Amino acid sequence: MHLLFYNLFCRLYLLGIRLAALWNPKAKAWIAGRKDVFDQLVAAFDDRRNPASRRPFGAPAQQATADSATNTTTLPKLIWMHCASLGEFEQGRPVIEALRSQHPGCRILLTFFSPSGYEVRKNYEGADHIFYLPMDSRSNARRFINIVKPDLVVWVKYEYWYHYLTNLHKRQIPTLLVSGIFRPDQPFFKWYGGLHRKMLKSFSHLFVQTPDSRELLARIGFNTTVTVNGDTRFDRVADILHKFTPIPAIEAFCSSHPTVVAGSTWPEDEEELDHYANTHPEMRFIIAPHEIHESHLKEIEKLFKHTIRYSVLQKRVPGTVSREQQVTNTLIIDNIGMLSRLYKYATITYVGGGFGNDGVHNVLEAAVYHKPVVFGPVYEKYIEAAELVEQGGGFPIDTALELEKMLDQFINDPDGYKKACQQAGDYVQSKAGATKTILQFIDDNQLLGNR
């Protein structure tokens, strides 16, 4: 009965997306990205359906090789990683890149469910193939796996699709969940959660972020297939810090001024910040909104009185300063992909989302630079934000007045500011290493064969 309702949900979800695509750009992209996806998969993976074809695909280390003695074809191992969206990709990215480094002969397939992930990372060079995941159904899952024939599957954090997972389990294909996080209110732990528990049983091993998650899983019989190894995002932001490359235009804009970098902001966040920015012309403010469509950018320009867009700033001749620039103290980032580097230039960071129902965005990208992180009140579901507060590097606020007092405090109390910086950076450094544990497990269990 539960499976019947699940299948009905998937059908209704697909119908809803098709209707929403008539006016919603994201829904339209969701539908368009899946058009002819199986034809595209067949073209990309024809060698796996018909090894005798020996179809070349990329670098020599990844090409199929023939064994003349046995007249058989040896194909490279295929690793399939699935991410719901962009945030999960950032969690999975350290694992992909570590696998690529340690198993260079393997081929990597990356799939997304959401356009927010696919559209931003469809040209990511760390994967051989990048696709939308076809909507879950018995026939789609069977067809997808028949074409791709993965040797190892890695799903990131959450998003559980019954037919894909159970099909992988039936075929005894090793399937790992990484950076999993579980809460008591999830269906797995309810009387009606049998279908969800069956999905969990389809994983060969569950890598979870917290001891609380392991304890919850133990209550429903998962004792030997669970490892607490933290969140791979700590490894990702540590890598960003290590590989940091300067942005000259940002450096020139900030100069020697105290700077607030506000990332992944929503309108609620921007309304908390605008008064302080408008009354502190001696400071610099960088706003990197979560949505960069034109109407939102214009709304930001209405809130903040002295703004310039990054696309305009970077066209300016280096060394020249116009009258407009002399009074401009707020830079609006009108592109995607810079945020993780912008926090480097902050005196104080602000991470958006904490005034919305979904909660605060990624605080680690800011904290890794040893900068205090301020955010709104909705953060309790995010263990890294809660722990950052406990460690003294994160600072939740409820109102614009509280935010302004917090910013003043950091500016006027050098000792307190220095301590907050240290606590933020130390917290991130102390949590790194989850990726290494996952790679060690894969190698110890020879899930990709001997290296």
Supply the key terms.
seven-stranded parallel beta sheet; 46% helix; single chain; Rossmann fold; 451 residues
Describe the protein's architecture and organization.
By secondary structure, the chain is of the alpha/beta class. Helix content is 46%, strand content 15%. It has 22 helices and 16 strands. The strands form 3 sheets. A 7-stranded parallel sheet has the order 5-4-3-6-7-8-9, sandwiched between helices. α5 (86-102) crosses α22, α13 runs parallel beside α14 (294-303) and α13 crosses α20. The model is unreliable at 52-64 and 66-72 (pLDDT under 50).
Please outline the helices and strands.
Blueprint: H1 2-20, H2 25-33, H3 37-44, H4 46-49, E1 65-67, E2 72-74, E3 78-83, H5 86-102, E4 107-112, H6 115-121, E5 129-132, H7 138-148, E6 152-156, H8 162-170, E7 175-180, H9 194-201, E8 205-208, H10 211-219, E9 226-228, H11 233-242, H12 248-254, E10 259-265, H13 267-278, E11 284-289, H14 294-303, E12 307-309, H15 310-313, H16 323-327, E13 330-332, H17 339-342, E14 348-351, H18 364-367, E15 373-375, H19 383-391, E16 394-396, H20 400-412, H21 414-430, H22 434-444
Give the low-pLDDT segments. Answer: 52-64, 66-72
Q: Count up the helices.
A: 22
User: What is the CA–CA distance across the termini?
Assistant: 45 Å
- What value does the Rg take, in angstroms? 24 Å
CATH architecture of the largest domain: 3-Layer(aba) Sandwich
**Could you please say which CATH topology of the largest domain applies here?**
Rossmann fold
For the record, the count of structural domains works out to 2
Query: What's the level 1 CATH class of the largest domain?
Result: Alpha Beta
The outline comes out as: globular
Q: Give the fraction of residues assigned to helices.
A: 40-55%
Give the class from helix and strand content and strand pairing: alpha/beta
Strand content: 15-25%
Q: Walk across the major sheet and give the strand order.
A: 5-4-3-6-7-8-9
What is the CATH H-level superfamily of the largest domain? 3-Deoxy-D-manno-octulosonic-acid transferase, N-terminal domain
The strand count comes to: 16
Provide mean pLDDT, rounded.
Answer: 91
| Main sheet: strands, sense, barrel | 7 strands, parallel
Oligomer: single chain
